[in-house]
Amino acid sequence: MANEHVNRSEFLEILKAVSPGLARKDLIAQAECFIFANGRCATYNDIVAVSHPLPESCADLAGAVKAEELLKLISRIRNKTVKLETDEKNLVIRTPSAQMGVRVENDIVLPLAAIGAPDEWLPIPEGMLKAISFCRFSAGQDQARPILTYVLLRENAAISSDDLRITVMEFDKPLCDRDILIPAEHIKELISYKPIEFGRDEGWLHFRNESGVTFSLRTAEDAEYMDLTDHLDVEGVSLELPTKELKASVQLAMDVIPAKEPDPVLKVTCKDGKMLVKADGPYAWVKCRHKIETDEVFQFLVHPQLFLDTLDLADEVIVGTSCIRIASKKARFVHVVLLCEGGDE
């Protein structure tokens, strides 16, 4: 094996880049490992697989190495470069003053080959990444209803719902000629890679960025998503929201909600010509009131980031008997939320 100098920071960034594919628990053999093979570093946890090309100086590394231990060692070293090599038992790391190693498994048992590779890479349709990012906030969290934890790609639209809210956003052209369901919880990570092209094969949707990093998501091939069309049209009273004031309130409310909260919500109440935005965090809370030209009384719950995004784009707000619809023809989105009982604060 080659024993050339490797830029430590560059190698560390590669490890971090593929980390979303690591499993939190070792339910699958080697799912907590970095896999070095064929000049790439890869991870796989049965839902997400990430693969990154290795620099030539360490392209011949081979085997499966426990991720946690390797990350700790590479992070701790302060040298600009290190020497890396794998033998039958270890991935060995050398600096001028130290030598360390992490046990290596030479037999790769993770089914990386089963992920396959797309027959062709195609440009991502304009607006698709924005659409799935917009819709991910309305996907469900309840694993007892797994279909709702996905974002549906149908023709040229992204669709999501958790049974209390629905979001639909269109993009330029269809991804393919059939429905695709992708897990909502990994969309934020996917978008952070800034992919520029995609490809499909059986059971997987692959994305690739300019650096050659591949981010693959397992799709729900046989699941049938419900038809939400009848719920998107809402009849009722049109409202003009105090957009500027509401945006300031939402941004303030977001400061008291932990960033890692899995499903953060704001409570929005309209009563007596006032609109109240309320957020409760574990250690702080926010209430903001604004005048609104309406006698309607209603209340709904909304994801703060999604509400902030819709306020920037919305040109139509309709309050019905059971739902509120926020939409934009120009931005090609619809967000429908069930109203809560009551309306008192």
Can you describe this structure?
The structure is a single chain. By secondary structure, the chain is of the alpha+beta class. The chain folds into 3 domains: 5-115, Roll (DNA Polymerase III, Chain A, domain 2), CATH 3.10.150; 124-207 and 216-231, DNA Polymerase III, Chain A, domain 2 (Roll); 237-338, DNA Polymerase III, subunit A, domain 2 (DNA Polymerase III, Chain A, domain 2, Roll), CATH 3.10.150. The chain has 7 helices and 24 strands. Strands 1-6-7-8-5-2-3-4-16-15-14-9 form a 12-stranded antiparallel beta sheet. Strands 13-10-11-12-24-23-22-17 form an 8-stranded antiparallel beta sheet, with helices on one face. The longest helix has 12 residues, at 243-254. The radius of gyration is 24 Å and the shape is elongated.
The parts where pLDDT drops under 50 for at least 5 residues are none
Task: Provide the helix percentage.
Answer: 10-25%
Helix segment tally: 7
CATH superfamily of the largest domain: DNA Polymerase III, subunit A, domain 2
User: How would the global form be characterised?
Assistant: elongated
Q: Beta-strand level of the residues, as a percent range?
A: 35-45%
Strand runs, count: 24
The CATH class of the largest domain, by name, is Alpha Beta
Overall mean pLDDT score? 92
The strand line-up of the biggest sheet is 1-6-7-8-5-2-3-4-16-15-14-9
Distance between the amino and carboxyl termini: 69 Å
Q: Return the structural class.
A: alpha+beta
What is the gyration radius calculated from CA atoms?
24 Å
Give the biggest beta sheet: 12 strands, antiparallel
How many domain units?
3
CATH topology of the largest domain: DNA Polymerase III, Chain A, domain 2
Q: Which CATH architecture of the largest domain is right?
A: Roll
